[in-house]
Amino acid sequence: MNSVRKALLVLEAVADHQPVGVSELASQLAQPKTSVQRALATLRDAGWIRPSAGERTRWELTFRAGRLARKAGSHFGLREVVLPHMEELRRQTDETVHLAVYDDSEVVLIERLESPHAVRHVEPLGGRASMLVTATGKAILANLPEDEVNVIYEATCVREEAGMFIPMKDALAQELAEVRLLGYATTSSWRDGVFATGVAITGPSGNPIAALSISTPETRSSDESRRKHALLLLEHAGQINEKLG
Amino acid sequence: MNSVRKALLVLEAVADHQPVGVSELASQLAQPKTSVQRALATLRDAGWIRPSAGERTRWELTFRAGRLARKAGSHFGLREVVLPHMEELRRQTDETVHLAVYDDSEVVLIERLESPHAVRHVEPLGGRASMLVTATGKAILANLPEDEVNVIYEATCVREEAGMFIPMKDALAQELAEVRLLGYATTSSWRDGVFATGVAITGPSGNPIAALSISTPETRSSDESRRKHALLLLEHAGQINEKLG
DNA sequence: ATTATTGTTCCACAATACGGTACATAATAC
DNA sequence: GTATTATGTACCGTATTGTGGAACAATAAT
């Protein structure tokens, strides 16, 4: 189904450049204008894109992808199961609680409950981050087979954004072993002045599908609070895994 | 491009039933098993779905749709532009601030900053609601041409969930006229005990693409706070529209 | 043991996606 | 002002490609 492939590529190209016209897309994708036009018409008929007002037809996404996204990375409505636990975690800690899934060698923040404190750590929803340095990312990595970890490691190196810290391969392996032992991951090297603790959420298959984390400003972080956060996360993750199983 | 249409239907069916097998999908969609299987293989190759572990092959979504969704309803990164204003609004009001887009005759909550108060209004991200009774929905409707409003009205009536309040058509028209005059919409008939004020965000084309709202428990709501919220929203919406233009 | 259901492969047929060419309109250059 | 490029859209004959019935092995239900 070549046409499907092309149509999906067109869809993603529209997402990246919206609002955008046929010709620009065609040159971007190195495809004949006619083919792109056909794909656009089909995607419009299917309700995934719409022409924005104006003389020259510019294409933009509808929210149809959003309907899917709500369910992506979540068998059985991950969010519905996890959200109550996130509320409880915040109540118990008064700190910011994050839920992230992994996609394309990165973690993606899909839900967040914020600390009530004036000083707090805020990340944008939908934001992406390296798996090698975040608490959520390392918690997930620790539950993946070694070869997949390697793939992700390489992919992260390739991406290699400026100023990004990438741990040595053996240092990472050692840390992941420790994470497996403890059951949770921590980081203070992701955002300056933020200490985070994370645990993986594994579906019924045992594969990690998401991770929960608690972030605190280092000024509010102590040995005691770190222990408390780790314990709470482990407890809730256990209950969540139970519910998903 | 019939195949594209079918593939997209399969994709959405997978989203609705994941994890799900070929046969169930085929009967669900009333399509020959072979066609569905072909579509699944293509979607897998394209990276939109993956087989979940297990003997019998069950299909589930990857997070690829999520990548699109982040950009849906937002040319020029709507969220990036709006988020700082939401932060400022919450700082100024200490109340919950919502950002919603509209899709398929409903409003969808895509970003939320919560009130620091113990008593606060919390809606789930990605949640959907009628446009006819929400502050965000009415703010958007007031900026749409009359015929589109009618389409949405009819669609909402058809959906007709149990216990859902649907205003009379002329009452709605009158209210929307008032919203156009004031520039903002209010509601207290959406969630019991919650008063909300909303304004539309119109892109460069003048079409409404999203809406901002402030929600407060009625116990904390007064004539003064309502005036304040409306003014702040209008001010910020103006600045946002400026930036988008 | 028997039956129903599932995921998967094969294949001949024709439907349909393909992309070159063409045309009209709107920005741009001169 | 005209000339020129770039853009969105329509047409059309060819063969590439998607189509769905039938058959298969393997599991689950009876």
Written as H for each helix and E for each strand, in order along the chain, the element string of chain A is HHHEEHHEEEHHHEEEH
Strand content of chain A: 15-25%
Rg of chain A, nearest Å:
21 Å
Give the overall form of chain A.
Answer: elongated
**What is the total tally of β strands of chain A?**
8
User: Structural class per helix/strand content of chain A?
Assistant: alpha+beta
Mean pLDDT of chain A: 86
Poorly predicted ranges of chain A (pLDDT <50, ≥5 residues)?
none
Oligomeric state: homodimer
The helix content of chain A, as a percent range, equals 40-55%
In short:
Chain A is α+β, with helices and mostly antiparallel strands and 245 residues long. Chain A is built from 9 helices and 8 strands.
SSE inventory with pairings:
2 copies of one chain form a homodimer.
Chain A lengths: L1 H16 L4 H8 L3 H14 L2 E4 L5 E4 L2 H8 L6 H16 L2 E8 L2 E8 L14 E3 L4 H7 L4 H14 L9 H14 L2 E3 L6 E9 L5 E10 L5 H22 L1
Antiparallel strand pairs in A: 1-2, 3-4, 3-8, 4-5, 6-7, 7-8
Helix pairs in contact in A: 1-3, 2-3, 5-9
Chain A binds a DNA duplex (30 and 30 nucleotides) through helix 2 and helix 3.
